[in-house]
Amino acid sequence: REPASRSPEAGSSNENIESIFYKFVILHAENDVDEAIRIQNLLQNKFCIKPGIIFAEMPCGKHILENLSDAVNGSAWTIILLTESFLKGPWCEFQSYTCLANALNKEHKYNTVIPVRPLNNPLPRKKTPFALQAINALEEDSPAFANQVERIFQESIYRQQQEIWRRER
């Protein structure tokens, strides 16, 4: 599989992935890589929300929990891809609870967890884990999707998050 191409804003080709502060990271089920790439490309190409990364693109050789921490803390928004595959393993649920706990424990991460129901294989609302039901999910098939994306992914919030990230490093 070919990962989504890096934007020029993501830095030079020799720049380490950990030195980039992403606008978003997409957490996804293992077999939803293609759908995660599609959503990543949609956000980057149609809505110009760059740079973004999917969890499958995180560096190899690190413990998976360290990669999860780096992904969540190294991006302004955490997108949870709600597909039918989301419930098939405990890892996705763990990822979502970790993100929610992070958003509660770090004031600057409040309102940064974004559940997304994609067009392909969406998780029905009635099957959504209780903790995620409290957050309005972006629904790709909604006529308001474009407006919601523009309202959520504000450049000023990204810059604030990026500055906090720089100070904490």
Automatic annotation (TrEMBL):
Residues 20-169 form the TIR domain. The keyword Lipoprotein applies. The keyword Cell division does not apply. One of its GO terms (cellular component) is late endosome. Its main location: membrane. One of its GO terms (molecular function) is signaling adaptor activity. GO terms for biological process: endocytosis; inflammatory response; innate immune response; positive regulation of canonical NF-kappaB signal transduction; positive regulation of chemokine (C-C motif) ligand 5 production; positive regulation of interleukin-18-mediated signaling pathway; positive regulation of type I interferon production; TRIF-dependent toll-like receptor signaling pathway. It is found in: Cell membrane; Cell projection, Phagocytic cup; Cytoplasm; Early endosome. PROSITE patterns: TIR. Pfam families: TIR_2 (PF13676). Keywords: Cell membrane, Cell projection, Cytoplasm, Endoplasmic reticulum, Endosome, Golgi apparatus, Immunity, Inflammatory response, Innate immunity, Lipoprotein, Membrane, Myristate, Phosphoprotein. Functions as a sorting adapter in different signaling pathways to facilitate downstream signaling leading to type I interferon induction. In TLR4 signaling, physically bridges TLR4 and TICAM1 and functionally transmits signal to TICAM1 in early endosomes after endocytosis of TLR4. In TLR2 signaling, physically bridges TLR2 and MYD88 and is required for the TLR2-dependent movement of MYD88 to endosomes following ligand engagement. Involved in IL-18 signaling and is proposed to function as a sorting adapter for MYD88 in IL-18 signaling during adaptive immune response. Homodimer. Interacts with TLR4, TICAM1, IRF3 and IRF7 in response to LPS. Interacts with IL1R1, IL1RAP, IRAK2, IRAK3 and TRAF6. Interacts with protein kinase-inactive mutants of IRAK1 and IRAK4. Isoform 1 interacts with isoform 2; the interaction occurs in late endosomes and disrupts the interaction between isoform 1 and TICAM1. Interacts with MYD88; the interaction decreases after IL-18 stimulation in a time-dependent manner. Interacts with IL18R1 and IL18RAP. Interacts with TLR2. Interacts with RAB11FIP2. This is TIR domain-containing adapter molecule 2. It comes from Tinamus guttatus.
